[in-house]
Amino acid sequence: MSKSAGAKLTSAIFCNSASKGESGKVNCKGVFTSFLAWSYPTSVRIWYALLTVYGLPAGTTTITASISRGKGRKTTLTSADIQRGKGDLGSVINMPLGYKFPSEGFYSVHFNVVGTTETLRVPLLVATQPWPRTTKRQREFFKSHPAIPHSIRMNVLCSNCSRPFMFEENILPEEELAEGVLPFPESGELECGTCSHALHLKDIQGQLRSSLKTAVLAAMRGGK
Ligand SMILES: [Zn+2]
C-alpha cells in the first residue's frame, strides 16, 4: 500500500479572487486557464487555486504548490497546512499563488500532499499578446469623451527594497503628468534609485493599455 491512500487531491481551478463564504464554502470570481502577457519577465501575477481534497487524515496535512515550465525544474510557490474539520468528507482549500513568468508557453502547477505520492498537475498557459496600440480615431474618441478614462495610474513597489513608484499610462501622450508621477520608460526597465534593482514594467504597462483600449472599444461600439 502506498502512503497516498490518505488524502486525495480531486480537482483544482484557478481564479482571480477567492474568499471564504458562509458555512465554509468558497466564493470565487474570474475563473481562468491562461494568463495574457505583454512582456517577460511578467509582473508578479497573483491568483488563487481552489483545490478540493478528500480523505484528510486526522491532524494536520500539508499541501504544497509548485510550478514548472513544461517538464522543467519545479519552483515552489507556497504551502498550506490544513486540518480536517468535524465530519468533513472533503475540503476546499483556497491557496493564494504568485509568480513572475519568465517566458510564454505551457506551465504546470503541481500540488502535492507532503509525505505522500499524491499529486495533482494543472496546466496553465501564458500567452503573449500584441502591444495594444491605439488608432487616431480611438484617440480622438477619448478626447471628445472625457468621461471615459484615458489614463490609469499604478503604484509599483521595487521588489527588492519596496520603494514605491507611481506610474501613469496615458493614451493621449500630449498630456502632462502630475508631479511625482512617472511615464513608463520606453525600454520597459527602470533602475531603482535606492537599491539599483531593475524593475521590469512592460508587462504592467501592457495590461493597463489593454484595459484602456478595451474600454474605448466598448464605448465606441455602444455608440456613445
Ligand atoms: Zn529598490
Could you describe the 3D structure shown?
This protein is mostly beta strands and 224 residues long. It has two domains: 8-128, Immunoglobulins (Immunoglobulin-like, Sandwich); 136-222, no CATH class. The chain is built from two helices and 14 strands, in the order βββββββββαβββββα. A five-stranded mixed β-sheet has the order 3-9-8-5-6. A hairpin with a 6-residue loop joins β10 (151-157) and β11. The protein is elongated and about 65 Å long. The mean pLDDT is 92. Zinc ion binds next to loops.
CATH topology of the largest domain: Immunoglobulin-like
Structural class: mainly beta
**Helix share of residues?**
10-25%
Task: Give the percentage of residues in beta strands.
Answer: over 45%
Reading the helices and strands in chain order gives EEEEEEEEEHEEEEEH
Figure out the total of helices: 2
Which radius of gyration do the C-alpha atoms yield?
Answer: 22 Å
Low-confidence stretches: none
Number of domains: 2
Estimate the mean pLDDT confidence: 92
CATH class category name of the largest domain:
Mainly Beta
Ligand identities? zinc ion
Record field, number of beta strands: 14
Distance between the termini: 67 Å
Categorize the overall geometry: elongated
Describe the sheet with the most strands.
5 strands, mixed
Strand order of the largest sheet: 3-9-8-5-6
The CATH H-level homologous superfamily of the largest domain: Immunoglobulins
Q: What's the architecture of the largest domain, going by CATH?
A: Sandwich
